[in-house]
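Weekly modeling sync, notes
Attendees: AB, CL, MP (scribe)

Item 1: holo prediction request
CL wants a bound-state model with ribulose-5-phosphate before deciding which constructs to order. AB pointed out that an apo prediction alone won't tell us much about the pocket. Agreed to run with the ligand included and paste results into these notes for async review.

Input as submitted:
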Amino acid sequence: MMPDARKRRVAEAAFERVRDQLDANTALGIGTGSTANHFIDVLAESKIDFLGAVASSKATEERLSHYGIELLDLNMTGTLPVYVDGADEADPRLNLIKGGGAALTREKIIAEASRLFICIADDSKRVDVLGTFPLPVEVIPMARSLVGRALVDLGGDPEYRPGVVTDNGNIIIDVHGLSITDPKQLELAINQIPGVVTCGLFARRPADLLLLATETDILEFTRDA
Ligand code: 5RP
């Protein structure tokens, strides 16, 4: 089965888990990327009635608007019941690397503002130790070199992602060569560097539920399992 078919199936599985919570007063958090896009498609095709969505990127806003789904401001919604998003890597504790699509900062804000974070992916994203996927870091442009040197001090091999400007007007540095055995500690250490907006480690606020599509099944992981 093509990876895209797996992404569609896991998006359908996520929808089945949230549909009972949706009504005319419910706002959803929705992430960014090809798997999140499938979730938006499934949601729209279902024609289910819900209030609208807080989007983690302009790209997601455009897709939601295309379907006529109401865009909501997180400052008005308060805590969201559910956030659905993809990931670039997930470890057994449901710590994640995110930001392959450069939307990590808004994704982290929405994850923090949500009671339940459902992460959806195909099974290629599951790893024992995070770090094979280069860790994205959103950086204020004038701090690029400063942050790069600090990331070398932390044991990484930083690479500027050319041509990418985030929705917040910043740049992305991808950090290669990390074997992330203590994700929470590294997340805190990177986020302390002046000029870093945030890094793509989701360990302080990991996923609550991870749905992974294999060739034949949907695997379900919770943090407490
Ligand atoms: C965007 C992200 C995405 O969730 C991540 O890159 C996964 O994308 P895809 O579903 O296309 O594999 O973090 O910033």
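Recorded for review: The longest helix spans residues 3-18.
Action items: CL to compare against the apo run; MP to circulate these notes.
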